[in-house]
DNA sequence: TATATAAATAACAATATGGTTATATAACTA
DNA sequence: TAGTTATATAACCATATTGTTATTTATATA
């Protein structure tokens, strides 16, 4: 479902740590060990936030020898902002429901 | 904090039921009893979703005799989409951290 | 090969979320 | 005033979220 997918992406964004990570990645790619000291949480916590962002396709990971660098998927982020500002128009659905008498009208 | 507030608003949006409610309100104001039969959840559940949206200032409520009508705060919704596409630039903060030697560099 | 570093995963705990049913409140109506 | 309808709140439960510490996996190096 459309709404389910958008809600999932928004959930991935709806956390201050993850928003800050994304903001940092706007400047440049970062590896996990760079990110950890910036936040007051443990390395596994950062790792899981990154994993969450990766699942939502908001970031991309690349291993470079012993480090894993994360980069922002700008396109996905932009698509999400766009989707928020262009939520589906349900006026047709409302009209249908009215025609079928399935809609209570209050007046 | 900037990120905290944005995260809170995004949390309010990050639910398929609430996204659909917002989409419906794009067409016109709706009262609670109109919304309830559209979803497969109870009236109190809808009521709490609306309450969540109200707290986030994404909707506005107006009582008209026995009904309570909810309307969309288009401005707040647009601001949120905009904020997503214009997350703060933290490059200065990164530079500062580097200067203070607080940033691990991996290469 | 043994050790060190980077990152992910496992197991667990506390809190948040989202649903339910029951009940309270507010406003109409006979 | 008593009853009805619309909505909100309370109490509760199951699951999700987000942190922790301990451990595992992957890579580099002495």
Structure description:
Two copies of one chain form a homodimer. Chain A is an alpha+beta fold. The first copy, chain A, has a single domain, classed as Winged helix-like DNA-binding domain superfamily/Winged helix DNA-binding domain (Arc Repressor Mutant, subunit A). Helices cover 58% and strands 13% of the residues of chain A. Chain A has a three-stranded antiparallel beta sheet with strand order 1-3-2. In chain A, a hairpin with a 2-residue loop joins β2 and β3 (67-72). The longest helix of chain A is centred in the middle third of the chain and has 13 residues, at 43-55. At the A-B interface, α1, α2, α5 and α6 of A face α1, α2, α5 and α6 of B. Chain B binds a DNA duplex (30 and 30 nucleotides) through α4. Chains A, B: This is Transcriptional regulator ArsR.
E-strand count of chain A = 3
Q: What is the CA-based Rg of chain A, rounded?
A: 19 Å
CATH C-level name of chain A: Mainly Alpha
Distance between the termini of chain A: 32 Å
InterPro entries (chains A, B): ArsR-like_HTH (IPR011991), HTH_ArsR_DNA-bd_dom (IPR001845), HTH_MetalResp_TranReg (IPR051081), WH-like_DNA-bd_sf (IPR036388), WH_DNA-bd_sf (IPR036390)
Protein name (chains A, B): Transcriptional regulator ArsR
Domain HTH arsR-type (chains A, B): 1-102
Keywords (chains A, B): DNA-binding, Transcription, Transcription regulation
């Amino acid at each position: 479902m459309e709404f389910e997918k958008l809600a999932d992406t928004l959930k991935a964004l709806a956390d201050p740590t993850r928003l800050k990570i994304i903001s940092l990645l706007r400047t440049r790619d970062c590896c996990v060990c760079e990110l950890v000291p910036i936040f007051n949480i443990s390395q596994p916590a950062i790792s899981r936030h990154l994993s969450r962002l990766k699942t939502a396709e908001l970031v991309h990971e690349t291993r470079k020898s012993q480090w894993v660098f994360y980069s922002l998927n700008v396109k996905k982020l932009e698509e999400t902002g766009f989707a928020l500002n262009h939520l589906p128009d349900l006026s047709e659905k409302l009209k249908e429901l009215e025609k079928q008498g399935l809609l209570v009208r209050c007046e």
